[in-house]
Amino acid sequence: MYVLEGEPTLITDSGEIQLHPGMCARFPAHARFISKTDQLASWKSGGELLTMLSSIPRRSPG
Hints:
The chain is mainly β and 62 residues long. The chain has no helices and 6 strands. The protein has one domain (2-52).
């Protein structure tokens, strides 16, 4: 995946990685993404443009 805008957080069995525009990432099929901001996030993956809205489950503070 290639992050175009926003800051999606990638969660895998190994932990969390905060992604930023311009970053590339590979991840296992069971990985998931959350949004820790209200900002829109967009990325390209497998030739498709994907957009994550703030409706993605947000992590509770604390």
